[in-house]
Design goal:
The protein is an all-alpha fold and about 260 residues long. Helices cover about 60% and strands about 0% of the residues. It is flat and about 60 Å long. About 25% of the residues are buried.
């Protein structure tokens, strides 16, 4: 497939470049002159996600995305200012929509939310290397926040506490997903445990090493990654149990 020529449309020169928020929430208006563009912003964002999924964020460039679409690089600059802005748009859209509300109780709903986010991070690992500069601001980011807050409505937490719980669960899921992807094979950890056990300075670790708790140490990265999901689910359930106990204690606490 040959490279498609520029379409003749230009960003209005008397207007400032659209911000990330303006592009996330609605494309800028076109000028009347020139033929209709052959590209859309959504197509560019989806192509960027495909490149990042297949080759990683370091391989992403405006030229590489243009090649994926079969257009010239300059065609893309009529829609986004550069790679940084493209990555911001990709980061909001990559996870897709959050899980639809189910028929379960609030705990089942929030567990489904966490698992869906985990799957999204595993499918788009480049998301874990994007710098976080603040709360979610795009349509999909707010949709995920809304879904978690909706799930927690039945928990008994007040509105501020629901936001705090959501931020914690989001951060825990993000961190454990990153751990499952970034860690190299664990031979160095196994060696360190063995050396540490010999010193007698780490009796708890030494005991766990002796009784086989660390039997997965030395496993390849892919196997280690599978061990992280049970850790996430264990922690998630303990957090949700703690919320239930906290709410129950508050209801029964004497007043006055």
């Amino acid at each position: 497939m040959g490279v498609k020529p520029d379409d003749g449309w230009e960003m209005p020169k008397d207007q400032a470049r659209p911000s990330n928020l303006e592009l996330m929430w609605g494309s800028p208006k076109r000028t009347a002159r020139g033929p209709r563009p052959g590209l859309t912003l959504d197509e560019i964002v989806r192509a960027g996600v495909r490149v990042a999924d297949a080759e990683g964020l370091d391989a992403l460039s405006m030229q590489r995305v243009a090649g994926e679409l079969g257009y010239t690089t300059m065609s893309l600059y009529r829609y986004v200012s550069g790679k940084d802005q493209l990555v911001a748009l990709m980061s909001d859209s990559a996870l897709g929509p959050p899980p639809e509300p189910g028929d379960g109780d609030w705990r089942e709903e929030i567990e489904a939310w966490v698992r869906a986010m985990w799957v999204g991070y595993r499918e788009h690992p480049w998301l874990l290397s994007v710098k976080i500069e603040g709360p979610p601001a795009g349509p999909q980011g707010l949709a995920w926040l809304e879904a978690a807050l909706r799930a927690l409505e039945g928990s008994g937490l007040d509105t501020g506490e629901r936001i705090s719980a959501t931020m914690f669960l989001n951060a825990a899921t993000f961190s454990l997903a990153r751990l499952s992807i970034d860690l190299k094979p664990m031979e160095d950890f196994a060696t360190a445990l063995t050396l540490g056990a010999r010193t007698g300075r780490y009796p708890i670790l030494a005991g766990m090493l002796a009784d086989g708790t660390f039997e997965s140490v030395g496993a390849p990265q892919t196997e280690f990654a599978q061990e992280i999901l049970p850790d996430l689910e264990f922690g998630l359930r303990r957090v949700l149990e703690g919320i239930e106990q906290y709410v129950s204690a508050r209801k029964t606490a004497p007043t006055g």
